[in-house]
Amino acid sequence: MPHQDLPRPSRSDAPPQDLKDVLDWLTDGIAFDGLAARRTCTWTPRGLTWAALLWAGADEPTLAQRFESARTLVRLAGEQADTTAATYQAFLKRLHAWTASLMLAVVLAFRRRMRTALAERFAVAGFEAFGVDGSRLQLPRTASNQRHFARPTRRHVRRRRRRSPAETRAEAARRKKAEDPQLWLTMMVHLGTGLPWDWRTGPTDSGEREHLRQMVDALPPEALIVADAGFVGYDLWQTLRQSGRHLLVRVGSNVRLLSRSGVVRTGDGLVWLWPDHAARGGQPPLVLRLIVVHEGRHPVYLVTTILDEARLPGRAAAELYRLRWGVELFYRHFKQTFGRRKLRSHRAENAVLEADW
Fold it and tell me: What order do you get walking across the sheet with 286-295 strand by strand?
């Protein structure tokens, strides 16, 4: 029986096999009708989205070559006419103008798909749980990238002892590495599916805690945020709690937890966080539950705003924290498997586009 005569599987039976079906499947449910472009624009919103996804995910060594490949594929898929603007500069111009609207439509559609197509994996231990962590992406050493992304250089005025040639070379290498432009990426990954939910980008010295604050409102109500020891702090945790979300965070020596208070009555497993600046400002202590997980050679200390042990048993908390490694796996795939350890854009504004798409 010829291959073309075989019955094609429906979308619910099997994943799509050819590129056009893949792009249709990825962008299914996106309201492109409400994103009308100017009459003089030769790109359609759907075609520009397809081209941006292909451009960002292609393997060609330069971004211009990736654009040529993406434009050709979109035209062959029948989404764009032959008259579509053929220059890379025109494509970037349209992408700068439309990315905010297109990205919002794409992200909202993806989140709906995650809830429906992966409904059986959306909750873990009764929680819609999300892991968060940050990492740096390397950028070409250009003037534009250095202005926007490199860490500001700091001169040390005090005199130091005379260094050996080897020490001098090592110090110069460290300084050069510190001055290299890097884009900071903070990812919010859904722990049940391992798929991205939200993200923020910024200079190499960006604060991942501030990025988390910016992403809180996009989380479902009662969501559980699972994070490592970099996401600690009274103000951040109060913000998360007041937003109606919960947290499960690993703590170490950088957090001082108290077990007795004349203000808050604590029971077994309950601790409180009340730094000096909060106490002086008349702010109440933050009551938390301490969970000690005995795995490996050293215990792991977790705190959570879920005080009821029946709602979040210690074993479930340990499993959720193990799933936080899904964020690390995402970065490994993103940087190594897909070769995105170093972005290609020479201009800072284009680097953000490249990272987002």
Answer: 195-202, 182-190, 129-138, 224-227, 246-250, 298-304, 286-295, 270-273
Q: Which of 150, 131, 57, 109 lies closest to 356 in space, CA to CA?
A: 57
**Is residue 208 pLDDT above 70, yes or no?**
yes
pLDDT of 4 > 60? The answer is no
**Confidence band for 350, pLDDT divided at 50, 70 and 90:** very high
d(CA 267, CA 269): 6
Closest CA to 148 of 306, 352, 355, 354: 352
Helix axes 63-76, 45-57, angle to 10 degrees: 130
Alpha-carbon distance 175 to 203, whole Å?
17
> CA 241, CA 305: separation in Å to the nearest integer?
7
| Residue 107 one-letter amino acid | V
Cα separation, 92 vs 17, in Å, equals 29
Distance, CA of 248 to CA of 240 (rounded, Å)? 11
Q: Are 284 and 263 in contact (CB under 8 A)?
A: yes
Residue 197 pLDDT exceeds 60: yes
Contact 288, 233 (CB under 8 A): no
CB distance 60 to 83 below 8 Å: no
Q: pLDDT tens digits for 107-133?
A: 999 999 999 999 999 999 999 999 999
CB atoms within 10 A of CB 36: 10
Q: How many Å apart are CA 345 and CA 347, to the nearest integer?
A: 6
Q: Give the residue with greater pLDDT, 17 vs 2.
A: 17
- Give the pLDDT of residue 166: 67
Q: Is 201 helix (H, G, I), strand (E, B) or coil?
A: strand
- In this prediction, residue 253 carries a pLDDT of 84
CA 268/CA 290 separation, integer angstroms: 9
